[in-house]
Amino acid sequence: MQLQATGGGAWEMAGMREMELHLLSSIAPAADVSGDDQAKRRLFPTGATGGEDEGADWKEFVVPELERAFRNAIDVVNGDLAAVERSEEDGEEIFRVAVPAEHTEHWYSALNQARLVLAERYDLPASEEEFLSESAVFDERWLAGAQSHLYAVIQTFLLETVMGV
Amino acid sequence: MQGGGDVEVVEIPEVEVEDEAELDQPWNVVVFDDPVNLMSYVTLVLRRIFGYSEERATQLMLEVHQSGKSVVWSGARERAELYVQQLHGYQLQASMAKAG
Question: How far is A125 from chain B (nearest CA, A)?
Fold first, then answer.
């Protein structure tokens, strides 16, 4: 996969193989916290001011707003993925996804949601070295770690190249 | 006591009132370390929300990373609530607590 800025804040993921496109299409399911209370608490924590009433207010007024914003980011990403361009190179199908500048923050958010949920669900460590040393290759947790790593690579590209951090 | 005659004693119930000092007590906004958010992203978020310089935001981010948490702002409760909400919007782990 080649990540490159295409001007005016837009960017693209080009030369993708089917597996990479599959991993991008897995952002939404990875970020889904349905039935996973631990992941839900991580994405939508309480304001933690202590009182029960305050916690209830937070859930009533703040969490729905966050849910809407996070859902919107996922929808934007899915929309960009639906417009994937297909071509053929050396007899193999390759894919390109173009992202306009105004979708960048949505992509970052969606990738982050997915990584946060994967980290909670599979207890992924912070460092790649630690992960590689403790995980059996190709088990479900390893695949989740690889998926999260790809998302982190895209996030780093976005921060350094597109968002100018 | 001077004076004569019967005197009716009326007990005045104690009413708990938060004293002014407590109302004025600042609240801390605390950001916690997590294994997911990238360091440069945390710095970016602190700059965006609080308007900190690159240097100040980096210093706070490093404190979060090295100490596990950092008080990134202190002040009025309502503002603290707004900041925590914004931090959650950026998916950082954050909460607020009374200072002191």
Answer: 6
Predicted confidence band at B55 (pLDDT cuts at 50, 70, 90)? very high
Provide the sign of the torsion angle of the four alpha carbons A141, A142, A147, A150, taken in this order. Answer: positive
Q: What is the pLDDT of residue A126?
A: 75
| Beta-bridge partners for A108 | none
CA B96/CA B80 separation, integer angstroms: 7
A126 vs A73: CA distance, rounded Å: 24
B89–A66: do the CB atoms touch at under 8 Å?
yes
In total, chain A counts a number of residues equal to 165
Question: What ipTM did this prediction achieve?
Answer: 0.90
What's the CA gap between B27 and B96, in Å, rounded? 7
Predicted TM-score of the model (pTM)? 0.87
B30 bridge partner residues: B71, B95
Report the alpha-carbon distance of residue A93 to residue A95 in Å, rounded.
7
Contact A163 B89 (CB under 8 A): no
